[in-house]
Design brief:
By secondary structure, the protein is of the alpha+beta class. It contains four helices and seven strands; from the N terminus they run βααβββαβαββ. Helix 3 links the parallel strand 4 and strand 5. It is globular, with a radius of gyration of 15 Å.
């Protein structure tokens, strides 16, 4: 997988994360990415491959919980296990900061993401009907780390 690492977002990668988030997730606000640089709770982590940003995840860390907001990998890099690497990093991070539960919300039509989360042991605990539009529910999932 070449030379890769995950780092907390720095100014150097703000534009890269903004471009990735805009393309892959949409509805992106560059100012919130910039504000996260000084935030104690809102965090972006960047996946670097050969020092190039190819993915990221965004989360809110409020022990004893973390809420995962977004996770994304460049389209041409998808299918290479990078999302799994970022999820493992997130889980390790959670354990380091005494987090017991990771929460997330996913669109019910995003089967790829749902499969990823299920592989890591996330379980559905609720849903919001038509949250993302007709027949597009928000599935609320959580991972209890002390059960693992």
């Amino acid at each position: 997988m070449n030379d890769f690492s995950i780092e907390k977002l720095t100014e150097q990668y703000v534009d890269d994360v903004f471009k990735l988030e805009s393309k892959l997730i949409g509805n992106c606000d560059k100012s919130s990415i910039i504000k996260s640089l000084e935030s104690e709770t809102l965090n972006y982590f960047v996946l670097l491959k050969n020092k190039e940003a190819i993915g990221f995840f965004e989360c809110m860390i409020l022990p004893p919980e973390i809420e995962l907001y977004d996770i994304a990998v460049k389209e041409e890099e998808q299918g290479n296990g990078y999302s799994k690497i970022m999820m493992n990093y997130l889980i390790d991070l959670a354990k380091q900061v005494d987090v017991s539960t990771i929460f997330l919300e996913v669109n019910s039509i995003n089967n790829k993401a749902i499969r990823l989360y299920n592989k890591f042991g996330f379980e559905k605990y609720s849903e919001r009907k038509n949250y993302y539009g007709e027949n597009k529910d928000a599935i609320l999932m959580k991972l209890d780390l002390f059960d693992k």
